[in-house]
Design brief:
This protein is mainly α and 142 residues long. The protein contains 7 helices and 2 strands, in the order E-E-H-H-H-H-H-H-H.
């Protein structure tokens, strides 16, 4: 990856117990600042970004606009909590378990297997879900 681009935070990072949200916010900031590699652009607002926004009950574009306007992670989450859906703690637990295990023996398993085979670094038996895949693909350990 070029020196001009930065990797977003880990998909495993959490904000107030909501997994992936810091990465989503980081990607929005990096994209706005021209520091997000173009390989990431096509997936902005879809996939895990979309699922996280659906959990929060907000539109990706609106949440990204908060970040672009200068909101901190905490400010963006507060905005989402004010403007989105209030969830009980057990739903937060369900959501986090869902996102953390996507690709493991579910409807995304075949897609994960295809993605793993595309690169010798990721064609590994210890990559069991997309969270694992993202970590290895971006040079972090699992």
């Amino acid at each position: 990856m070029s020196e001009d681009y930065q990797l977003p935070r880990s998909a495993r990072d959490e904000l107030e117990g909501i997994v992936y949200l810091p990465r989503l916010l980081d990607k929005a900031r990096l994209h706005h600042g021209g520091k997000l590699h173009p390989d990431y652009h096509a997936n902005l607002g879809i996939g895990m970004d979309l699922w996280t926004c659906q959990f929060l009950g907000v539109d990706y574009t609106d949440l990204a606009a908060q970040v672009i306007a200068g909101a901190t992670d905490e400010d963006a989450l507060a905005w989402a909590q004010e403007n989105g859906t209030t969830r009980p703690d057990f739903e937060k637990s369900w959501f986090c378990a869902y996102v953390k295990t996507r690709g493991f023996r579910d409807d995304m398993s075949a897609r994960l297997a295809e993605r793993k085979k595309d690169d010798p670094r990721t064609d590994r038996d210890d990559i069991l879900c997309f969270m694992d895949y993202i970590e290895v693909d971006e040079g972090r350990t699992i």
